[in-house]
Amino acid sequence: MSELSTLILPAAPSLGSLYATAAAGKLRGLLPGSKPAARTVPQVEHRLESLPINRQKLVDYQRLMGDTVRDELPSVFVHGIVFPLAMSVLVRDDFPLPLLGMVHLSNAVTHLAPIAPSAVLTAVAHAENLRGHRAGTQVDLLVEVSAGTELVWRSVSTYLARGVFLGERPSEEARPHQEFTHPTRTASWRLGAATGREYAAVLGDYNPIHLSAPSAKVLGMKSAIAHGMYLAGRALAGAAPHGTGYAWEISFATPVFLPSTVDIAITSALDKTEFSGWGSRSGKPHFSGTVTPLA
């Protein structure tokens, strides 16, 4: 990859304005004579210095997740405060994929060290690895967070733009369906219809697909779905260690429609904790992941 140029943002953009920009861009793309999408990701990183950390939001987040209230930033809370920076890359005019309707496939995060709420954080974000998929086009979004000169958090999020093919449509055949056999249940989550709004109130992600059935239907869903990172945060509240560094990853299978009950399994071995969630009634897998302490 060629060297990236840097765009320094004066302040964290609001997610509301970013979603509005994404919606306007989608409408422009439907107009006659609109220019074709680029076939590469922009060779630029967005940088934000002195990330604001709201201590009350931190407490609200920990309580929402059922986590211990402590002076340490949970990994998904870090994701939440850098998410507007990451989104600002995805809504650029020269970004080749439409943000609205993009599917969140997975996350791989290295939380290198405990992060105090008083830390002065700097974050950079860029996109890379644009590639084809049998259902569209995938892209990776990388975000790195530093406290002073020390890298403390790094995330790779993978997204899929369904039905968007930047080249010829691949001829790859659909993979055979694999039956899912869930592990032994260790807990159940009862997620109410307001779950998406409660998460949004803490971390500001007011994506319409998570807020209500009517707003989700506008984007093609039958009902509102839970934020993927809400599910990750709930799982990590029971699986992640405190006071040390750790790596974690999560893959998403099927959406959690709200309201819903999700059955959970968290199992620990000496070197790794595994977690997964599936529909209590449907039995369909929703997500799975692992947590590994760093040496």
From TrEMBL:
Region feature Disordered, mapped onto this chain: 276-295
MaoC-like domain ranges (all copies): 183-266
Domain of life, per lineage: Bacteria
InterPro entries referenced in this protein's UniProt entry, alphabetically: Fatty_acid_synthase, HotDog_dom_sf, MaoC-like_dom
One Pfam family recorded for the sequence: MaoC_dehydratas
Family membership: Belongs to the enoyl-CoA hydratase/isomerase family.
Protein name per UniProt: MaoC family dehydratase
